[in-house]
Amino acid sequence: MNFKIAVVAGDGIGPEVMEENIKVLNAVGEKFGHKFEYEYVLGGGCAIDKYGEPLPQHTIDVCKASDSVLLGAVGGWQWDTLPGDKRPEKALLGLRGALGLYANLRPATLHQALAGACPLKPELVADGVDIMVVRELTGGMYFGEKGRKMTDMGEAAYDVEIYAKEEVRRIAKRGFEIAMQRNKHLTNVDKQNVLESSRLWRSVVLDVAKDYPEVELDHLYVDNASMQLIMRPTTFDVIVTSNIFGDILSDEASQMTGSIGMLPSASLGDGKLGMYEPVHGSAPDIAGKDIANPIATILSGAMMLKYSFKLDEEAKAIEDAVTKVLEQGYRTADIYSEGMKKVGTKEMGRLIRENL
Ligand code: IPM
Ligand code: MG
Fold this sequence. Notes:
Blueprint: E1 2-10, H1 14-32, E2 35-40, H2 45-51, H3 57-64, E3 68-73, H4 89-98, E4 103-109, H5 122-125, E5 130-136, E6 146-151, E7 154-159, H6 165-181, E8 185-190, H7 196-209, E9 216-221, H8 222-231, E10 238-241, H9 243-255, E11 264-268, E12 274-278, H10 295-307, H11 312-327, E13 330-331, E14 341-342, H12 345-354
Parallel strand pairs: 1-2, 1-3, 3-12, 5-10, 8-9, 8-10, 13-14
Antiparallel strand pairs: 4-5, 4-11, 6-7, 11-12
Helix pairs in contact: 1-10, 1-12, 6-7, 8-9, 10-11, 11-12
Bound molecules: 3-isopropylmalic acid and magnesium ion.
C-alpha cells in the first residue's frame, strides 16, 4: 500500500530523531511491501525563523491532505521570549486543534531490560508497568479563553478551564474503547471536589460508562492520582483525563519507563488522520550531538502504522526490534547504566533496523 505522510521535524533534536524514524519506517516498508511518501513542512521555531510564524497555513494544508503526520519536537531558547501565540509551541497546539486531534494516547510501558533505569524501587514495578494515558487534547484551559485584566491586586492573567459535554463524551468513549481492547480497567482522573468543569466531566464519564458494563471504572482526584501512580504503578491500566492533568500525569508516567526518551504518543480524531510524536521536547542542549534517544520517535512511528494505517504486524515488528536492541544491552545516554553498551542516535536507529 501507499501512504502519504507529512513530516514536521521541528527544532532541536527533532530532525535527528525523525531521520532515524524515517529510516526505520522505510526498512519496514521494504520488508512488508509498502511505500511511504514524505512531505517535509516547517513548524515551530524553524518556521518562525523562515516565515515569521510558528504554524504557516501551508503546513496545516499539507498535514490535512496527508494520511498521517509525524512530528519531531518544537521549541528552543531562541524563541523563549516571544509572546504566547508567536511561540513554537503554537505549532503543536495549532495542529492539534486544526486537525481535530482530541484524543492523545501516551502509553507508558516499562521494558524489562530497562527495569534498572526506572527510579522506583524494583518491587514496585516487578509486575511490569503498562499504563495508557488517554489525555483530552483540544479543550480545557490550553484552548480556553485567556487574557489579562486589572484587579485590586494589580495586573492579573487568566486561562479558562472549560469543557463541553460533547468534548468529554468523545474522550471518555475513547478511554472506554481502549480499555476494552486492554485489561478493561479505566481510571478517570479529575478534581471534582473543587472544579465545576470536573463535576461536569465526572457526570459525563459516569453516563458513558453505562455503555461499557464490562469495564471496571474508578475515579481519582488528580493530586491523589499523582501519588497513587508512584505507589502502585502496576495496578493501572487506562487513565482518562483532561488536557492539563494528562499533560502532567503523562510526564510522571514517562519516568517509570526509565526515560522520557522512551515515550511515544498518538494524537487522534475521528478519522484515520493522526499525528505521532515523542512525548519529550526539543532538548536544545543536546541537539546535533548524536546522543538523543530516538526510541520515543521510532515507537511513535509504530503507533502511526497501528492506529492510522491498521498495519498491526508492521507496528509490532518495530516494537519487537526495540525490545531486542534493549535486551542486547544497547543504550543511549539517557538510559545508560554500567555494563551496558552506550550508542548514539544514529547507531541506535541502525541497530533497530538491523533487528527488524
Ligand atoms: C506535551 C507538551 C505540550 C503540551 C507543549 C509543548 C505545548 O508539553 O506535548 O506534553 O503541553 O501539550
Ligand atoms: Mg507535556
